[in-house]
Amino acid sequence: MTTLVDQTTTPDGGATPSTPQRGRGTSAVWLRWLGKLGSAVFVLWAAASVTFLLQVLAPGDRATLLLNLSSGQSRERTPDEIAPVNEQYGFIDPIWQQYLHYLQGLLHGDLGTSYQLQQPVTEVIAEQVGPTLVLTVSALIVAWLLVLVTTTLTAGRRGPLGGLGALLETVSAGLPQYWLGSILLVVFAINLAWFPVESGTGLRGLVLPVLTLAIPLAGFLGSIARDEFARALDQPFVLTARSRGLGDLSVRARHVLRHSVIPAVTVSGWAMGALLSGAVIAETVFARAGIGQTLVAAASSRDVPLVSGIVVLVAAIYTVANLLVDFLYTVIDPRIEVP
Amino acid sequence: MPRSVRPARARVLMAVALSAAALLSACGQRPETGDGTSTGVAATPGEYETGGVIEYGHEQEPPCVHGGWVQNAYLARQYLDNLVSLDDAGTPVPWLATSWDISPDRLTYTFHLKPDVKFSDGTTLDAAAVKTNFDAYLNPDSPNGTVAAYIGQYYAGGEALDRTTYALHLKSPYSPLLTVLTQGYFGIQSPTALARGAEANCSKPVGSGPFVIDRWDRNRSITFVRNPDYNSAPANAKHQGPAYVDKVIWKFLKDPVLRYGSLTSGSSDVIYNVPPINWADATGRFQTRQYVTPGRPNAITLNVDHAPFDDVRVRQAFAYSADREKAVETAYLGVVPYNPNGALSQSTPDYDATAGAYVRDPAKAGRLLDEAGWTQRDGDGIRVKDGRRLSARVVYASDAIIGPEGAAVLQDVAYQARQVGFDIELVPATQSEYFGGRYAKADTYDAYVGYWTSPTPGLLYINWRQRLEDNPNPYNNAFYNDPSLQGLIEKANSSADPAEQRRYYSEAQKVIGDQALAIGLYTQTTSIAAQPKLHDVWIEKSQGEPVFSDARFVR
C-alpha cells in the first residue's frame, strides 16, 4: 500500500487528480464499500486456506504427532496405533475433502476442535483473545500518543531538537521487542519494583508489556510522520497560516499535523497485524495469557484447527483495522474519497 | 553417584549412627549439588501458619494435564496417588497399596489396597478401579505410550481379587516393576472420570491425591485446591493427612529472566529450573534443591544403521574428539553435572561410572579415523573416504527437549569434532517435526540427542531392545541390534538377586560405552528454589517431581 498522500493524490497512490468529490453519488460510495468488503472476505478465505493447506501438507504425520506429544516421545508409530487416530480426526480422507469440510465449518462459525487441547477452537480463542486485544490496542494507542507528541514538538526543526527527535525514532524503531521487554522487566519490575513482575490482569501490569510493543512501533510510525511533517511545513498553507499570525505550535498542531499523520494512519492497519505477532513476545516475557502464546504452542504441536482458527481471527482483525483506517482518512481529511 | 559405595556418605552415616532417627535423616544426606537435598539458605524458623497459597513458577505447559511426558508426571504428583512410592533410599514403600505379595515364580504381584480411599469425585478407590486404570493405560487403541513402553512387553493382565486386593500378572519376571510403578504416569485415576472421555480427562482428570484441579487458565496457570479428605499420603511423605496449604497456583513462566525475577520479587514462592546464571545468587538467598534425575542422560546416540557411524572406530573417534566435560561446564557454569556414560545418568541405581568415559584425545581419534580409511582431507579440513565426506547430521529437538545451554554444549562438541575432520551438521528440530516423527526413520539422521527420565536401569531394556521386523522397538534410536546386549538386560530385569542385576546392568552399560553407541553429555536435572519462609517443599525420586503436600509457611 503506497502511503504517499497530499492534496493531489488519493491515498491508494493513484495519480487521480483531485477533482471535486462531494458531488459524487452515494451509490458509488456504497459500491466502493461493498468492494472493500468483498476483498476483505477474499483475504479471510485466502488466509484460512493457505494456513490450512500449509499445516496439513507440512512434513510428518499428524496422527503420529498427536500420539507422541501426549507421551513426550519421538517415535515411529505402528499402523495399528495410527488407525484409530486417523479415523477419529478424518486424516485418511482426501485432502480436498478435509479442506471442504473445514471451509463448511468456517461458514457456520465452527472452527473445529483443537487436537491438543480437545476443546472447541472458538472457546480457546474466546478465552485468550481478550488480553491480547487489550494489549495490542493499548500499544497502538500509546504508540500514537508518543508519535503525536514527538512529531509535533520536534519534526521539521533544524538544530538539536529535531536531530534528537529523529535519533530517538530511529533507535526505538530498531529495538528488538524481546530485548526491550527483558530490559523493562529487569529494571522496572525486578529492580525498582514499580510494576508487578508477572503482568497478570491488572492495569499496572499492562504498562510494561504495552511499552514493549509501543516504543518500537512509535519509532516506526514517527519516522513516517516526520518526513511528511517536514514536507507539509514547506507547503504554502503553512506560510499563509503563519502570516495570519499563528504561533509555531498552533501551526504545527492544528494544520501541519493533520497532513503529516495520514501516511502513518495508513500504516496503522498493518501495524495492528504486526502488533498481534509481536504480542507473543510480550506475552512470554511478562507471563500474560493471550492468543500469541496460544498460536506458538499450537503451531509447534501442529494443531491445525487451532492455528487456522487464530490465523483467520488475526486476518479478520487486520481487515477490520484496514477498513477502519480507510474510514479514518475521510475523518482526518474529508476531501479524500473512499479509496 | 552410586549410593552404596560413597565413602564420604558412609562415614557421615557412621558418625551419626547413634543419634536420633530424625537427626540421622537430616544429616545422613550430604548437602551437595545433585542429590535433591537443600543447598541454599536454611528455612526461616517460626510459627507455622495455617492455610496459605503456594505460587509455583514452572517452565513448560503440556497440552493435557495427564499423559506420558515428564511434564505430566510433575502434575500427577499433585492430584494422583500411585500404588507405591519411592523413598530416599530408592526403595518402593507403601502408598495406595499398604503391602504386596510377590508369588514364588515372581509372575504375580498382589497389592493390598488401603481401604476407605475415595477419589475427589466421590468414587471409591478399590481394586476394580485399579484394574480399570491399567486396562485403560494399556488399551491398544489409545495407550499411554510411556506406560506401555515400561510394562507392555511384560504385562499379562490384572484382576480384582476382592474389593481391596488387586493382582497384576506378568508374562516373565520383571524386577523393576515396583520402582516403575512409582512414576506419575502410573497414577490411579477415578474410573468414573475416565469414562467422561478425552476432553474432560485432558483438562480435568480426577484422582485421590492431596490436591484437586480447580481450574486451568491456559498459558497462565493451573490452580490446585486442597483435598480436605485426603487420607492416602505415601509412607515417605513428611506427614499424613490433608495438605497444609489451601492452594497451589502452578504458573507457567517460560521466560527464564521472568521466572527468576518472579521469585526474587516475591511473586512466586517456589520456582522450577533456576537458570544456571542465577544459581549462585539463588543459593545465597533461597532454599535451593537440585535433583539429578535418574534414567538416560542427555546424550548423543549414534545411528549404526548407515555410514559413517556404522563403523565402531568412527564412533569411538567421535567420542574421543571432544572435551565434553569442559563443554558442559562452560555452558552450564558448573551447575549441571557432566555425565560421560551415555546409557544411564549418574543417579540411576547400578550406574557404572567407568562406562563410556572417553577422555578427549584428538590424536587417538585421528588414528582411529585413519584405520577406518578416512585418511584424506578436503580443502575444508574434513576427512574424505572414497569421495564421501565424513559428515553427520546431529538431530535434536530444540526448546522442547534441549534448551539454550544444551544447544551450546552441542555446538562446542561439533566444533571440536571438526578439528579431527568430522563435518557435524547440527539440525535443530521443531517440536512438531520431532514429535511428528520426521526423524524417526533410520535414514533421516546420523545421531540423535535426548534424555529419558526413569528411576530404574531397567530403562536400558526400552532403549536397547532390538528393533526387529516382528517386534519393533521405536525407542532404539541407535538401530543397534545385538541379541547379546538385549540378553544381558533381560537377565538383569528378571534376576531376583541385586548383585547379579548390578553385574548384568553394568556389563550392558560397558557394551554401550565400548561400542560408543551413546555419548553422554549432561544429566537431566530438576532444580528448585524456594522462599525461606516456605518449609518442606521436596523433590521426589522417581521423576524429580516437586511435592507440595507437606509444605507450609511460617509467620
TrEMBL record, chain A:
Biased composition annotated in UniProt, kind: Polar residues: 1-21
Residue intervals passing through the bilayer: 37-58, 133-156, 177-197, 203-225, 261-286, 306-329
Key words, A-Z: Cell membrane, Membrane, Transmembrane, Transmembrane helix, Transport
Keyword set includes Transport: yes
Chief location bin: membrane
Any one Gene Ontology cellular component term annotated for this protein: plasma membrane
Entries under InterPro entries matching the protein: BPD_transp_1_N, MetI-like, MetI-like_sf
Pfam families cross-referenced by the UniProt entry: BPD_transp_1, BPD_transp_1_N
Location relative to the cell: Cell membrane
Keyword field contains Nucleotide-binding: no
Domain ABC transmembrane type-1 stretches: 129-329
Domain of life: Bacteria
Membrane topology: Multi-pass membrane protein
Gene3D superfamilies the record matches: MetI-like (1.10.3720.10)
GO MF terms, alphabetically ordered: dipeptide transmembrane transporter activity
Annotated region (Disordered), positions in chain: 1-24
PROSITE patterns: ABC_TM1 (PS50928)
Family according to the record: Belongs to the binding-protein-dependent transport system permease family.
Name of the protein in its database record: Dipeptide transport system permease protein DppB
Encoding gene per record: dppB_2
From TrEMBL, chain B:
Segment forming the signal sequence: 1-25
Keyword Signal in annotation: yes
Domain Solute-binding protein family: 91-457
Biological process terms in GO annotation: peptide transport
UniProt keyword annotation of Signal present: yes
Location relative to the cell: Cell envelope
CDD domains: PBP2_NikA_DppA_OppA_like_15
Gene Ontology, cellular component aspect: ATP-binding cassette (ABC) transporter complex; cell envelope; periplasmic space
One of the record's GO molecular function terms: peptide transmembrane transporter activity
Keywords of the record: Signal, Transport
Main location: other
Similarity field: Belongs to the bacterial solute-binding protein 5 family.
Stated name of the protein: Glutathione-binding protein GsiB
Organism encoding this protein: Gordonia insulae
Taxonomy of the source species: Bacteria, Bacillati, Actinomycetota, Actinomycetes, Mycobacteriales
